[in-house]
Amino acid sequence: MGVQVQEFENGLVLLGEPIRSLESAAFTFLLPSGAAHDPDQRRGLAALTCDMVQRGCGERDSRQFIEDLENLGVDGGESVSVAHTNFGAAMLADNLAAALAIYAEMLRDPHLPAEQLEASRQVAIQELRAVEDEPGQKAMQELRRHVYGDPWGRPGCGDLVGLEAATIDDVQKQFANCYQPRGTILAVAGNFDWQQLCDTVANLFGDWQVAGAADPPTGGEPTAGGHIEHDSNQTQIGIAYPCVPYRDPDYYQAWGGVGILSGGMSSRLFTEVREKRGLCYSVYASCHSLRDRGSVLCYAGTSAERAQETLDVTLAELQRLAEGIEPVELARLKARMKSSLIMQQESSTARSSAIARDWYHLGDVRTLEVVGKIIDDLSCESINAYLAAHPPSDFTVVTLGPNPLEVSLGTA
């Protein structure tokens, strides 16, 4: 049957992929309430609002909300990215409609209890401090700030000043502006009947009112990297360079090149930086995409004594990628990609998240069969042609540790 699409008059987009072989169903809500929507002096408001909407809704108080979901066997979670607030849940297929009804109340009629604002604030602050306590995460967070600028380089957790300043009025305004059908995506995957799902969603969300919120600013200029002084025996290294975004026709060629760099114990970064030279305890690279631009983000964690060598060798490996990839590397890459596709096909949670992401970036959804063909069609020639036209360059480097490092683009 493939992926079905229903666009409602109020702007809500429903996506559905029935998978009859599963006994589960899962859904993903993407709401236009990410960190980029936070007012400048209230960074972290999206994260705070995300917690507050879960503190009771409709006739349910906070405890009853949790218990009703648990009684349905719902495995749920939430997160805030720069673009969205994400609510996801998986359950037995028979409980899909009941779970959607509870989430509809949460998204449309939350209590937002003023007396629980401080508890929500402390949750958000603890999440912020957890990042501060993880030097690797902090370095990569700072790298994204430099690469994308403001507001698109903001972390989902916000900052302490914004969280401490937020009031219940701020939360109510954020909810009114951003928790609305326009720009919201609901993706469902698993064992369900499409027409019944359309009817259920129409009953729950069809009369959801559209707010008048403006789109977030599109600005955000990249800035040079830098060093964060941190008293430690370790150094965290973040490196980024430009890449085509997910919607670009050449994205999978770019992804293939990065997959040669990172993604397994035979990948170049693992082999050259960690295994052969023993320079670091962790090293990886991945494609990262906003709607209109992308980058490759790389990380290496190492000792302070070997940090400069680690940076030099990692940069040299990134530059060497432009020379091309070998058939044996491509074979390993395709095997990993195909394994990932098979696992996604067997997981309603993974599939609902993937089709929501596709719609946001593409305004369409690639079926697993289409993605499989794209992978089959990847060749050394096609990836090498992309790498020749888009060689890793224009590096942004952020380091966190006791000493700044020198960025040299020679060969290690």
Which structural traits does this protein have?
15 helices, Cytochrome Bc1 Complex, Chain A, domain 1, six-stranded mixed β-sheet, globular, 43% helix, alpha+beta, 412 residues, single chain, five-stranded mixed β-sheet, 11 strands
Question: What's the topology here?
Answer:
Blueprint (H helix, E strand, L loop, with lengths): L3 E4 L5 E6 L5 E8 L13 H8 L9 H10 L3 E6 L4 E8 L3 H13 L8 H16 L2 H14 L11 H6 L2 H11 L6 E6 L3 H12 L20 E4 L4 E10 L7 H11 L6 H8 L4 E10 L4 E10 L3 H14 L6 H19 L2 H15 L5 H10 L2 H10 L6 E6 L11
Parallel strand pairs: 2-6, 7-11
Antiparallel strand pairs: 1-2, 3-5, 3-6, 4-5, 8-10, 8-11, 9-10
Helix pairs in contact: 1-4, 1-7, 3-8, 9-15, 10-11, 12-14
Describe the model.
The chain has 412 residues and is of the alpha+beta class. It folds into two domains: 4-205, Metalloenzyme, LuxS/M16 peptidase-like (Cytochrome Bc1 Complex, Chain A, domain 1), CATH 3.30.830.10; 226-401, 2-Layer Sandwich (Cytochrome Bc1 Complex, Chain A, domain 1), CATH 3.30.830. Helix content is 43%, strand content 19%. It is built from 15 helices and eleven strands. It has helices spanning 45-52, 62-71, 96-108, 117-132, 135-148, 160-165, 168-178, 194-205, 251-261, 268-275, 307-320, 327-345, 348-362, 368-377, 380-389, and strands at 4-7, 13-18, 24-31, 75-80, 85-92, 185-190, 226-229, 234-243, 280-289, 294-303, 396-401. The strands form two sheets. Strands 1-2-6-3-5-4 form a six-stranded mixed β-sheet, sandwiched between helices. A five-stranded mixed β-sheet has the order 7-11-8-10-9, sandwiched between helices. A hairpin with a 4-residue loop joins β4 (75-80) and β5 (85-92). α1 (45-52) packs across α7, α3 packs parallel to α8 (194-205) and α12 runs antiparallel to α14. It is globular.
